[in-house]
TrEMBL record, chains A, B:
It comes from the Bacteria. This is Acetolactate synthase large subunit. It comes from Inhella gelatinilytica. GO terms for molecular function: acetolactate synthase activity; flavin adenine dinucleotide binding; magnesium ion binding; thiamine pyrophosphate binding. InterPro entries: THDP-binding, Thiamin_PyroP_enz_TPP-bd_dom, TPP-bd_CS, TPP_enz, TPP_enzyme_TPP-bd. Residues 377-513 form the Thiamine pyrophosphate enzyme TPP-binding domain. CDD domains: TPP_BFDC, TPP_PYR_POX_like. One of its GO terms (biological process) is small molecule metabolic process. Residues 1-110 form the Thiamine pyrophosphate enzyme N-terminal TPP-binding domain. The lineage of its organism: Bacteria, Pseudomonadati, Pseudomonadota, Betaproteobacteria, Burkholderiales. NCBIfam families: PRK07586.1.
Length: 552, 552
């Protein structure tokens, strides 16, 4: 068998059964080998950022990596932003990047570039160029072991065309599943002492600590000790909703996060980093841990978060305690004439089906989503882990392929959606059960907020034009139809509710374009910096009220 | 003034007056500074690949760089493919990549990544992270001097947010225009001797040697010496058409390029590299220079190609010779019921307006374009210099902004168009005179050819599905309308001619979606490898005939 065939067999034997592809000439032997392996599903994407974002979404839900198939350095470049999201989310991805034949590379043909250099940005843990057909399958297994270790990583295997097409390929048996260690006894003992000390303790849960089993253990610990549970601001995958223990997400706005963390004397990290602000702002601190608050680590991303939390619960003697769970509570049907982002979020909470996967890249429009879905049926939430926008539509593809029987809801701002809008075509081609909601507010709304926050308030018309998407207005209904996805444009609460009810009960992909005003507009936007700055000095109940009004 | 203001003034003083942008929070001070400089035009793009491809197209036509404004490593990653095309085309581009504040970077926030590493892929000549507000403008001038040197380069200046927002910025006076040396006397003497020896000589012209002045000198030399003039396969900018000396482009298919070069004893490179095949193929040579053919260099990309050609013409005493120029000759109006890619190309030759800029990324559908436009009115042709598809629509934006009074025609395959389809929105927003023609053949047609050429003929249904774009079919008319560009779908030769006539005479952007069958389909496709392989052994007239039928 040739290299590509050996690689294909090795991957499928190891359980890698989905490949998100955007191939070119140098990948044609891998493409030809697809027909040798009925277990390998190849999902064609029209742009590499869709393929990498789909692999990210797939692995978040399947708990194993998909492969991507990319075309040289430029294909990898196009896929970089969503690989960045995967890297920051500790999500396993196996990139197979085709390259020129080994003897062709020194000739500096048109597509020649330094692929390894680009790859190191997202694959610090594994970048290798295969050099021999006979050892290609072992290269793939090595890459796979890095990818699916703890933490999950993006691993990049560069595959020269001649290594792929030459005979002498040999499949390699599937490697053992990696096992992550749990927290050590010393850590455990000191945390037990801390939790029994009566000090004010918060937990910051991230990564694997946001799945239900881990949340149950954490909720037991919190119920027993009075500790507060926070989730990192952008969870890779957070299980939540009715019947699941609740956890409060850290706010995106540093000013609000400071309010959330105020007064805690100890912060315990569980598969998470000490929180920092998303961006830096003139004259403001980037570190969000309050002065005097001591940071501890129950377990690092290299360790097993769920098992570590269970051990802690056992050590506290609360592993059989019935933990508090979120009550079932849906918001009412939104009413009125005018559609707003808040009403869209309310309608989603009103209708969210059982066992849904919600991919949230709604940015400012999604501010009220957590509140309205807190008591909706149990669902998984996937978010923008690395801040590289253009994640939601591709993530939704991967999630729908990993979980074909679960409804997927992708919530996306208009600006974000345009980075990887080509994803709609793959949804149509594969007949995926994805309902995409576009919040079309004709602006990069979050940048209007940020423009003030960085102290550049006196923006003139040219600056403001850089944040405006209204001339011409985007018509996502037409865009969706151009890629074979049925779409509806709505501008009333009732219209949105009807469209959501209908699309959730109809198989295949659908898009709902919700025409909404910016969530933080006019006076609210102008006042925001002032309000936020004064939160610190306000009486607690007032600050809490404003926080609820303004924050996720 | 702050760093961003000093930077803005320095750039505009140096003649950099266009910036293609896709900003985020870390770029907000640069955005705010736009209103301080009326000379700086900021062109918003919805995806970074559009911004970088527009900067490429702009510089090809303006002969000076534009700036790009990109958001951290992920923004640069999204822009990488079209920067690759610029790098390979020796096109000057100045990237300004915003970064976290210097003190924020070590905190590894969500968007933190190693930007310099990514940048080195496309900016080997200049990557620098600014560290001080006071020296930022000098950093920009240093970057600019590398970018607009000879050869043109992509230079990347990474701009941390605090370096941008801090006070203490100082503008720097515009640097002197770089001057490139001409070829030396020894080279000149040996080439004069060669050209007077009666040997069979071909010139391979690339880069700056494909502008009219250089072509006139080359044509004088050729007319005098009997040398043959070739252009590199993917010219950065080739001036051609009626009244311009003709040059034969090297073929994309190595098999055809070998036929073109057969029998030449000497190949003289002028701002070009010795030709190699685009990809490697099993059992075939990648170098295209025939055995025994000696390669010479008149001037390297570091030297002034036009001046070097003039010197050579002077040394031969032919610098006053009237060179042969292409006669004016348009094809007739295409007829018949069925629209084909060939008929679209014919219609373009029939109607091409005076002084047009043609951006060609039509891949297989454009095979007949060179033939049908050889005698059309004088025009500039921009092509896919680096092979990274998704170049034409962004290039067209840049060309139209550099040359607002020239009609721009972007010819794009359906597969290629989808990589940077967001470009249509910027065309509408800026009201650019661009007519986009999409060859919609519902396939990655070139890959059907390549699949056979790499020896993977026995492709099964899964492999073939990877090259198929028909399920669902893309509707580019809907996509264009979704982004504010008026569009027409045509399926007859007469329909296409009418649409082209109308759109060329109506200001603003338009899109024509031509529904065509694959150019190399069915029997033709099946026979192609065999035909190409036998070309070498065929009698010259037959080979010439087949070459004309199959090649650009």
């Amino acid at each position: 068998m040739n290299g590509a065939q050996a690689l294909m067999q090795t991957l499928t034997d190891a359980g890698i059964e989905v490949c998100f592809t955007n191939p070119g000439t140098s990948e044609m032997h891998f493409v030809a080998a697809l027909d040798d392996q009925p277990r390998m599903r190849a999902v064609l994407c029209l742009f590499e950022g869709v393929a990498t974002g789909a692999a990210d979404g797939y692995a978040r839900m399947a708990d194993k990596p998909a492969a991507t198939l990319l075309h040289l350095g430029c294909g990898l470049g196009n896929g970089l932003a969503n690989l960045h999201n995967a890297r920051k989310g500790k999500v396993p991805v196996l990139n197979i990047v085709g390259d020129h034949a080994t003897y062709h590379a020194p000739l500096d043909a048109q597509l020649q570039s330094d692929i390894e250099t680009v790859a190191r940005n997202v694959s610090p843990g594994f970048v290798r160029t295969a050099t021999q057909t006979g050892t290609l399958a072992q290269d793939a297994v090595d890459a796979l072991q890095v990818a699916r270790g703890r933490p999950g990583q993006v691993a990049t295997l560069i595959l020269p065309a001649d290594v792929s097409w030459s005979d002498g390929g040999q499949a390699v048996a599937p490697p053992p599943a990696p096992v992550a260690p749990v927290c050590d006894d010393t850590t455990l003992e000191s945390l037990v002492a801390l939790l029994q000390s009566g000090a004010r303790v918060a937990f910051l849960l991230g990564g694997q600590a946001l799945r239900e089993a881990a949340l149950v253990s954490a909720a037991r610990i919190a119920a027993h000790s009075g500790a507060k549970l926070f989730s990192e601001v952008f969870p890779t995958r957070l299980t939540r909703g009715a019947g699941v223990p609740a956890v409060e997400r850290m706010a995106y706005l540093a000013e609000l996060a400071s309010v959330q963390l105020r007064g805690f004397e100890h912060l315990v990290l569980v598969d998470a980093k000490a929180p920092v602000s998303f961006f830096a702002y003139p004259g403001k601190k980037s570190e969000l841990v309050p002065p005097g608050c001591q940071v501890h680590t129950l377990c690092s991303p290299e360790q097993d978060a769920a098992a570590s939390l269970t051990r802690l619960a056992q050590a506290l003697g609360v592993d059989a305690l019935t933990p508090p769970r979120s009550p079932a509570l849906r918001p009412s049907r939104p009413r009125g004439r005018k559609l707003t982002a808040e009403k869209v979020c309310k309608a989603i909470g009103h209708l969210l089906p059982e066992n849904a996967i919600v991919v949230d890249e709604a940015i400012t429009s999604g501010l009220m989503l957590p509140k309205f879905t807190a008591g909706a049926p149990r669902h998984d939430l996937l978010t923008l882990t690395g801040g590289a926008i253009g994640q939601a539509l591709p993530n939704a593809i991967g999630a729908a392929i990993a979980c074909p029987n679960r409804p997927v809801l992708a919530l996306v701002g208009d600006g974000s959606a345009m980075y990887t809008i080509q994803a709609l075509w793959t949804m149509a081609r594969e007949g995926l059960n994805v309902v995409t909601v576009i919040f079309n507010n004709a602006a990069y709304s979050v940048l209007n907020v940020e423009l003030s926050r960085v102290g550049a308030q006196e923006a003139g018309p040219k600056a403001k034009a850089q944040l405006d998407l209204s001339a011409p207005g985007l018509n996502f209904t037409a865009l969706a139809q151009g890629m074979g996805v049925p779409a509806t444009r709505v501008q009333s609460p009732e219209g949105f509710v009807q469209a959501l009810e209908r699309t959730l009960s109809t198989p295949g992909p659908h898009l709902i374009e919700a025409l909404v005003p910016p969530s933080l507009s006019g006076l609210k936007l102008k006042l925001l910096p002032t309000v936020l700055e004064s939160l610190e000095g306000l009486p607690a109940p007032v600050a809490r009220f404003l926080k609820r009004k303004l924050a996720p």
